[in-house]
Amino acid sequence: MNMGKVVGSVVATRKESSLDGLRFMLVRHVDHEGKESGGSVVAVDAVGAGPGELVLVATGSSARQTLATDKRPCDAVIMAIVDSWDVDGKEKYKK
């Protein structure tokens, strides 16, 4: 699992038919301090995340284990919206 920030959406009008009805979001990775740390990934949104939200992303075969992505050809899924996190007892983020 990785933490990331939703920075945009991806629209693909022509795609594998099993992906019809799914939303694709562009997620930029963030570090444990909440700072953007480089790479990004296109992920299927299984939880209704929106721009600017911090999310948890599962990749690989784990990405195909949600109700929205079961048996569908995806390699990344947003499977949680982060409400808060702390590091060493210090709150780093609260929604």
State the share of residues found in helices, binned by percent.
under 10%
What form results from the Cα inertia axes?
elongated
Q: Which stretches are low in confidence, meaning pLDDT under 50 for 5 or more residues running?
A: none
CATH class: Mainly Beta
For CATH, the homologous superfamily is named as: EutN/Ccml
Main sheet makeup: 5 strands, mixed, barrel
CATH architecture name = Beta Barrel
3D architecture notes:
The structure is a single chain. This protein has 95 residues and is an all-beta fold. It is built from no helices and seven strands. The protein has a five-stranded mixed β-barrel. Strands 6-7 form a two-stranded antiparallel sheet. It is elongated. The relative contact order is 0.25.
Any descriptors?
5-stranded mixed beta barrel, two-stranded antiparallel sheet, 95 residues, OB fold (Dihydrolipoamide Acetyltransferase, E2P), 0% helix, mainly beta
